[in-house]
UniProtKB/TrEMBL annotation:
Family of the protein in this entry: Belongs to the HAD-like hydrolase superfamily. S-2-haloalkanoic acid dehalogenase family.
Protein name as it appears in the record: (S)-2-haloacid dehalogenase
Function, as annotated: Catalyzes the hydrolytic dehalogenation of small (S)-2-haloalkanoic acids to yield the corresponding (R)-2-hydroxyalkanoic acids.
Catalytic activity reported: an (S)-2-haloacid + H2O = a (2R)-2-hydroxycarboxylate + a halide anion + H(+)
Keyword set, alphabetical order: Hydrolase
Source species of the chain: Salinicola endophyticus
Enzyme class: hydrolase
SUPFAM superfamilies membership: HAD-like
Lineage of source species: Bacteria, Pseudomonadati, Pseudomonadota, Gammaproteobacteria, Oceanospirillales
Amino acid sequence: MAFYTEGPTTQGRGPVHLVFDVNETLLDTAALDPLFMRWFGTEARRGEWFLILQETWMTANLVGHFAPFAELAKSALRQLGAKHGVSIAPADEQALVDGVLGMPAHADAVEALAGLRQQGHTLTALTNSASAAAQHQLAQAGLAAYFDAILSVDQVERYKPAPEPYRAAAAHWSVAPEAMVMVAAHGWDLIGAQAVGMRTAFVARPGKAMDPALEQVPTWRSDDLSQLMAQVVAAG
Protein backbone atom coordinates (compact mmCIF):
# COMPACT_ATOMS: atom_id res chain seq x y z
CA MET A 1 0.00 0.00 0.00
CA ALA A 2 1.51 3.32 -1.08
CA PHE A 3 0.66 6.20 1.20
CA TYR A 4 2.42 9.23 -0.28
CA THR A 5 -0.43 10.46 -2.48
CA GLU A 6 -1.04 14.20 -2.22
CA GLY A 7 -4.05 15.14 -0.16
CA PRO A 8 -5.19 16.28 3.27
CA THR A 9 -5.79 12.77 4.59
CA THR A 10 -2.20 11.67 3.99
CA GLN A 11 -0.14 14.81 4.35
CA GLY A 12 -0.79 15.46 8.06
CA ARG A 13 0.57 18.64 9.61
CA GLY A 14 4.11 18.40 8.27
CA PRO A 15 7.24 16.24 8.41
CA VAL A 16 7.44 13.71 11.23
CA HIS A 17 10.49 12.48 13.17
CA LEU A 18 10.18 8.70 12.89
CA VAL A 19 12.39 6.32 14.88
CA PHE A 20 12.52 2.67 13.79
CA ASP A 21 13.62 -0.39 15.66
CA VAL A 22 15.57 -2.74 13.37
CA ASN A 23 15.60 -6.41 14.38
CA GLU A 24 12.16 -8.01 13.83
CA THR A 25 10.60 -4.61 13.05
CA LEU A 26 12.37 -4.03 9.71
CA LEU A 27 14.45 -7.20 9.35
CA ASP A 28 12.93 -10.67 9.30
CA THR A 29 14.40 -12.95 11.96
CA ALA A 30 12.59 -15.91 10.38
CA ALA A 31 15.65 -16.11 8.11
CA LEU A 32 17.42 -17.66 11.11
CA ASP A 33 15.00 -20.60 11.27
CA PRO A 34 17.21 -23.03 9.30
CA LEU A 35 19.97 -22.60 11.88
CA PHE A 36 17.67 -23.42 14.77
CA MET A 37 16.22 -26.35 12.85
CA ARG A 38 19.75 -27.68 12.36
CA TRP A 39 20.74 -27.25 15.99
CA PHE A 40 17.52 -28.10 17.81
CA GLY A 41 15.33 -29.90 15.29
CA THR A 42 12.63 -27.23 15.42
CA GLU A 43 12.28 -23.66 14.21
CA ALA A 44 10.37 -22.80 17.39
CA ARG A 45 13.64 -22.47 19.30
CA ARG A 46 14.40 -19.22 17.44
CA GLY A 47 11.68 -17.37 19.37
CA GLU A 48 12.87 -18.94 22.61
CA TRP A 49 16.42 -17.77 21.87
CA PHE A 50 15.22 -14.21 21.29
CA LEU A 51 13.36 -14.20 24.61
CA ILE A 52 16.54 -15.35 26.39
CA LEU A 53 18.46 -12.63 24.55
CA GLN A 54 15.98 -10.00 25.75
CA GLU A 55 16.32 -11.28 29.31
CA THR A 56 20.10 -11.12 28.98
CA TRP A 57 20.27 -7.50 27.84
CA MET A 58 17.68 -6.37 30.38
CA THR A 59 19.74 -8.06 33.09
CA ALA A 60 22.80 -6.21 31.76
CA ASN A 61 20.87 -2.96 32.16
CA LEU A 62 19.81 -3.78 35.71
CA VAL A 63 23.27 -4.73 36.93
CA GLY A 64 24.98 -1.89 35.05
CA HIS A 65 27.28 -4.11 32.97
CA PHE A 66 27.06 -3.32 29.25
CA ALA A 67 28.33 -5.98 26.85
CA PRO A 68 28.27 -5.99 23.03
CA PHE A 69 25.05 -7.24 21.45
CA ALA A 70 26.83 -10.02 19.55
CA GLU A 71 28.27 -11.39 22.79
CA LEU A 72 24.83 -11.40 24.38
CA ALA A 73 23.37 -13.15 21.33
CA LYS A 74 26.02 -15.88 21.63
CA SER A 75 25.41 -16.18 25.37
CA ALA A 76 21.68 -16.60 24.77
CA LEU A 77 22.40 -19.39 22.27
CA ARG A 78 24.67 -21.16 24.75
CA GLN A 79 21.98 -20.85 27.43
CA LEU A 80 19.41 -22.28 25.05
CA GLY A 81 21.73 -25.15 24.23
CA ALA A 82 22.32 -25.91 27.91
CA LYS A 83 18.57 -25.83 28.54
CA HIS A 84 17.86 -28.41 25.85
CA GLY A 85 21.00 -30.52 26.14
CA VAL A 86 22.48 -29.37 22.84
CA SER A 87 26.21 -28.66 22.55
CA ILE A 88 26.89 -25.26 20.95
CA ALA A 89 30.31 -24.90 19.32
CA PRO A 90 32.13 -21.62 18.59
CA ALA A 91 31.35 -22.18 14.89
CA ASP A 92 27.64 -22.28 15.75
CA GLU A 93 27.94 -18.99 17.61
CA GLN A 94 29.61 -17.39 14.59
CA ALA A 95 26.96 -18.82 12.27
CA LEU A 96 24.31 -17.11 14.39
CA VAL A 97 26.12 -13.76 14.29
CA ASP A 98 26.56 -14.07 10.52
CA GLY A 99 22.88 -14.94 10.17
CA VAL A 100 21.79 -11.88 12.16
CA LEU A 101 24.01 -9.68 10.00
CA GLY A 102 22.43 -11.10 6.85
CA MET A 103 18.73 -10.97 7.71
CA PRO A 104 16.51 -9.69 4.86
CA ALA A 105 14.01 -6.85 5.08
CA HIS A 106 10.36 -7.61 5.69
CA ALA A 107 8.38 -7.49 2.44
CA ASP A 108 6.67 -4.21 3.31
CA ALA A 109 9.76 -2.33 4.54
CA VAL A 110 11.14 -0.86 1.30
CA GLU A 111 7.81 0.54 0.09
CA ALA A 112 7.03 2.06 3.49
CA LEU A 113 10.44 3.68 3.95
CA ALA A 114 10.59 4.90 0.35
CA GLY A 115 7.21 6.57 0.71
CA LEU A 116 8.25 8.29 3.92
CA ARG A 117 11.51 9.42 2.36
CA GLN A 118 9.66 10.87 -0.63
CA GLN A 119 7.42 12.85 1.72
CA GLY A 120 10.41 14.39 3.49
CA HIS A 121 10.03 12.85 6.92
CA THR A 122 13.10 12.35 9.11
CA LEU A 123 13.92 8.65 9.47
CA THR A 124 16.16 7.36 12.26
CA ALA A 125 17.07 3.76 13.02
CA LEU A 126 17.55 3.06 16.73
CA THR A 127 18.74 -0.44 17.50
CA ASN A 128 20.18 -2.62 20.22
CA SER A 129 22.62 -3.98 17.63
CA ALA A 130 26.13 -2.59 17.67
CA SER A 131 26.71 0.46 15.47
CA ALA A 132 28.86 -1.25 12.82
CA ALA A 133 26.53 -4.24 12.76
CA ALA A 134 23.47 -2.03 12.30
CA GLN A 135 25.09 -0.21 9.38
CA HIS A 136 25.91 -3.56 7.77
CA GLN A 137 22.48 -5.06 8.46
CA LEU A 138 20.55 -2.19 6.91
CA ALA A 139 22.93 -1.84 3.96
CA GLN A 140 22.78 -5.51 2.98
CA ALA A 141 18.98 -5.47 3.35
CA GLY A 142 18.74 -2.49 0.99
CA LEU A 143 17.38 -0.12 3.65
CA ALA A 144 20.32 2.02 4.77
CA ALA A 145 19.86 4.74 2.13
CA TYR A 146 16.40 5.59 3.44
CA PHE A 147 17.70 6.68 6.84
CA ASP A 148 18.95 10.09 7.89
CA ALA A 149 20.69 8.52 10.89
CA ILE A 150 21.45 5.00 12.10
CA LEU A 151 21.90 5.06 15.87
CA SER A 152 22.96 2.31 18.25
CA VAL A 153 22.67 1.90 22.00
CA ASP A 154 26.48 1.68 21.96
CA GLN A 155 26.74 5.44 22.42
CA VAL A 156 24.94 5.33 25.79
CA GLU A 157 25.83 1.74 26.80
CA ARG A 158 22.25 1.03 27.85
CA TYR A 159 19.89 -1.24 25.97
CA LYS A 160 16.35 -0.35 25.08
CA PRO A 161 13.88 -0.10 26.83
CA ALA A 162 16.05 1.95 29.22
CA PRO A 163 15.34 5.68 28.71
CA GLU A 164 18.84 6.69 27.61
CA PRO A 165 18.71 5.38 24.00
CA TYR A 166 15.42 7.16 23.25
CA ARG A 167 16.64 10.40 24.78
CA ALA A 168 19.87 10.10 22.79
CA ALA A 169 17.85 9.81 19.57
CA ALA A 170 15.97 12.98 20.43
CA ALA A 171 19.19 14.75 21.39
CA HIS A 172 20.75 13.74 18.06
CA TRP A 173 18.16 15.91 16.30
CA SER A 174 17.90 18.53 19.07
CA VAL A 175 14.19 17.88 19.48
CA ALA A 176 12.05 16.84 22.43
CA PRO A 177 11.08 13.16 22.65
CA GLU A 178 7.47 14.31 22.27
CA ALA A 179 8.31 15.34 18.69
CA MET A 180 9.24 11.77 17.73
CA VAL A 181 7.33 8.58 16.92
CA MET A 182 8.87 5.22 17.83
CA VAL A 183 8.01 2.37 15.45
CA ALA A 184 8.59 -1.19 16.67
CA ALA A 185 7.31 -4.75 16.72
CA HIS A 186 7.98 -5.08 20.47
CA GLY A 187 5.75 -3.92 23.27
CA TRP A 188 8.69 -3.43 25.62
CA ASP A 189 10.33 -1.07 23.09
CA LEU A 190 7.22 1.06 22.73
CA ILE A 191 6.59 1.16 26.47
CA GLY A 192 10.17 2.42 26.93
CA ALA A 193 9.69 5.07 24.25
CA GLN A 194 6.34 6.20 25.64
CA ALA A 195 7.87 6.54 29.10
CA VAL A 196 10.16 9.34 27.83
CA GLY A 197 7.34 11.04 25.94
CA MET A 198 7.46 9.60 22.42
CA ARG A 199 4.34 8.63 20.55
CA THR A 200 4.37 4.99 19.49
CA ALA A 201 3.44 2.84 16.49
CA PHE A 202 3.20 -0.94 16.75
CA VAL A 203 3.68 -3.16 13.70
CA ALA A 204 2.30 -6.59 14.58
CA ARG A 205 4.86 -8.89 13.02
CA PRO A 206 4.06 -12.63 13.11
CA GLY A 207 4.03 -13.84 16.70
CA LYS A 208 4.06 -10.32 18.16
CA ALA A 209 1.25 -8.79 20.22
CA MET A 210 0.63 -6.06 22.78
CA ASP A 211 -1.56 -6.15 25.85
CA PRO A 212 -4.99 -5.00 24.54
CA ALA A 213 -5.75 -3.54 27.97
CA LEU A 214 -3.02 -0.91 27.61
CA GLU A 215 -4.76 2.38 26.89
CA GLN A 216 -1.85 4.68 25.96
CA VAL A 217 0.57 2.33 24.21
CA PRO A 218 0.68 2.15 21.25
CA THR A 219 -0.69 5.33 19.73
CA TRP A 220 -1.20 3.48 16.42
CA ARG A 221 -1.14 -0.18 15.40
CA SER A 222 -1.33 -2.30 12.24
CA ASP A 223 0.05 -5.57 10.90
CA ASP A 224 1.29 -3.77 7.75
CA LEU A 225 4.06 -1.18 7.92
CA SER A 226 2.75 0.97 5.05
CA GLN A 227 -0.73 1.09 6.56
CA LEU A 228 0.75 1.90 9.94
CA MET A 229 2.80 4.76 8.52
CA ALA A 230 -0.28 6.09 6.73
CA GLN A 231 -1.95 6.44 10.14
CA VAL A 232 1.07 8.21 11.61
CA VAL A 233 1.53 10.60 8.68
CA ALA A 234 -2.18 11.48 8.60
CA ALA A 235 -1.99 12.47 12.27
CA GLY A 236 1.14 14.57 11.67
